[in-house]
Amino acid sequence: MAKNISDNMTFMLESFSEFNTSYNGSSNDTSFASGPSRTALYIGGIVMLVALLWGLFANILILLVVFTRRDLNNIINIFIISLCINDIINLGFNNNLVMLSYFMGEFPTGMLGCELATLFTVLFMGSSLWHTGLIAIHRLIVVVFNNFYKKISKRAYTCFVLVFARVIPLLFLAQPSLGQMAYYESRLLRCIVKKNYGPYNLLVIMFLMILPSIILVVCYIAVFIKVHQSSIAFRASRQKEWLKREIKITKMFGMVFLLIVIGYMPYGIVRSIDKQLQLSADFYVAITVFFAIGNCCNPIVYGAMDRSIRLECFKIFHLIKNQEKENGNALTTAQTTQMVVENEGETEVIPLNMSTKITQTNESFT
Q1: Contact 257, 217 (CB under 8 A)
Q2: What b/e readout covers 68-106, taking b as 16+ CB neighbours within 10 angstroms?
Q3: pLDDT value at position 213?
Q4: What is the mean pLDDT of residues 297-301?
């Protein structure tokens, strides 16, 4: 009898020990035997740390530039601010936890934080993609249905876009299974959704990835067709300048969308194919690092493709101070002098030496 009790206690202790190992990843030998190598983790952690610092710095810089310059306060830049805030929270929580797990060889929080990271990934991914989808609808309305755009309330319209882009992903977190959907996978050093939640994963893919992607593609095709037709029909310089700006803004947000998709796509495709996690754990580190870098690249797009934001970023670091002095005389000539007007509630740069009279076509957004 005593022997049976002793055997049962030994079995229970061994089971408890195995549970702790899979739950917390606390056993270094087990973790590194079944998970990524130390070299892959340290290299991946360093790359993610650099990307994280860059992403936080660049997004905060964009926010600072747009907030401090009133002439940059237009609808498009409000959408950029919203995306930057989304990126900062995502980087500060999700990317930070994954990076720490690489340095520690285990997830840095308990099961609650681990599952929250999984759910927040869905939330921020969906929010970013719906931002780009709704911005695509905005570009379609401004370019193709401009008369309708002039009549609507810009404030109400903007608030609707910012709220709707977050409400849709939040709906996927409002469910009775919340808190019991994920489990810790030591091979990936992160929590993943359990296999019996396949319908949930399918709905996430359909409504948070595919649907906003389809909206974006359809809207941008319509915008490019309209711009092409208008560029032939309109001969006045003002209309041509306006069309150039519209196509430039459209391309910028198209690039943001591509970065988001490229960042999420490799990891998502590999996980959907390798359901049994047969691939090398080091390979998963590589695609996770690629995903983290993709999360940090949006500010590069804003800085590279939006001239006003780019110049203001340079001015903060006094990088163009000397250039302004050297080009001061040239910038005062009639041929290169420019003025800023409000077009469709958004800033547009138009040459002053045009014969076409420039009017303010819409109420400015404040």
Answers
A1: no
A2: eeeebebbbbbbbbbbbebbbebbebbbbbbbbbbeebb
A3: 86
A4: 82
Angle between helices 75-90 and 38-68 (to 10 degrees): 150
The Cα–Cα gap between 239 and 147 comes to 15
Lowest mean pLDDT among 43-52, 71-80, 148-157, 182-191: 71-80
Determine how β-strand 346-351 pairs with β-strand 338-343: antiparallel
Residue whose C-alpha is closest to residue 108's, from 118, 97, 117: 97
Q: Residue 170: CB partners within 8 Å, gap ≥ 6?
A: 123
Q: Tell me how far apart the alpha carbons of residues 239 and 337 are, in angstroms, rounded to a whole number.
A: 18
Q: Tokens for 242, please give them.
A: 């306006």
Per-residue pLDDT tens over the stretch 271-282: 888 888 888 999
In three-state secondary structure terms, 308 is helix
CA distances from 249 to 245, 347, 348 (A): 6, 11, 11
Q: Pairing between strand 338-343 and 190-193? A: unpaired
Q: What is the pLDDT of residue 233?
A: 62
User: Could you tell me which of 44, 173, 25, 171 has the C-alpha nearest to residue 111?
Assistant: 25
Residue closest to 124 by CA, chosen among 280, 247, 298: 298
Q: Cβ atoms within 10 A of the Cβ of 192, count?
A: 17
Inter-helix orientation angle 111-144/96-104, to 10°: 140
First to last CA, the chain: 82
Where helices occur in the chain by DSSP H, the ranges are 2-24, 28-34, 38-68, 75-90, 96-104, 111-144, 146-151, 154-171, 198-204, 211-233, 237-273, 281-295, 298-305, 307-316, 321-326, 328-331
Determine the Cα–Cα distance for residues 155 and 316; give it in Å rounded to an integer.
Answer: 30
Give 212-257 pLDDT, tens digit per residue.
889 988 988 888 888 777 766 655 556 667 667 777 777 778 888 8
